[in-house]
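Lab channel / #folding
Pinned by the channel admin:
"Please post every new chain as: sequence first, then the structure tokens as a reply. Keep commentary short and put observations after the output so the thread stays searchable."

First post following the new format, from NK:
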Amino acid sequence: METLWFKTLPSTHKYLIEGIKNKTLKVPCALGVDFQSDGVGSRGNIWLGDEGNLYFSFCVEEKHLPKDLKLESISIYFSWLMKEVLCELGSKTWIKWPNDFYINNRKIGGVITTKVKDVIIGSIGLNICHAPESFGVLDIQVLSKELVEIFIQKLKEKISWKNVFSKYRVEFQKSHGFSFHLDGQKKSLADAKLLDDGSIEVENKRVYSLR
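Reply from TO:
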């Protein structure tokens, strides 16, 4: 997988989507920046940060992902792979449903995904050394480019969804003390039931990660 690195871009996610649509970038590929000014966060929010944090996007064809991985589970799958990379480096990062990186009770990053025809674009933002107020910072020292390189190797292993989900399910209990947003409203995860495809059942409704 070719990896491109820029000093700055408005958004790695948007740049990669346009590159795929315009056929100026070849799949698979990855790109990162030292600083982005208009990054895409969850629910359409902007994900900003100072130089030194991780701003990284990548794309793969759906056929090159594990055969048991369904589209609705992809964001969780990517977030867990990065979580595994971080923990192997000594971090205590955990995943709050569906795909937010946390240290203790503070969010330090997250994952979003977009599908363009048969191509999946994933983007990861992570506060490595700086964070806005009320957010947290990664608990280990590591360079962005190093994380990208290790993550790509992890992605190439094509670890099955069954393997990932068996571990994700155990960690899900940590999410019960938190909340999520649904249709513009804040909902508690206290009584949420995790289903096999990564969706949850809350108030008798099935809710998927739409990121």
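NK: The first strand starts at residue 2 and ends at 9.
TO: also worth noting, The chain has four helices and 14 strands.
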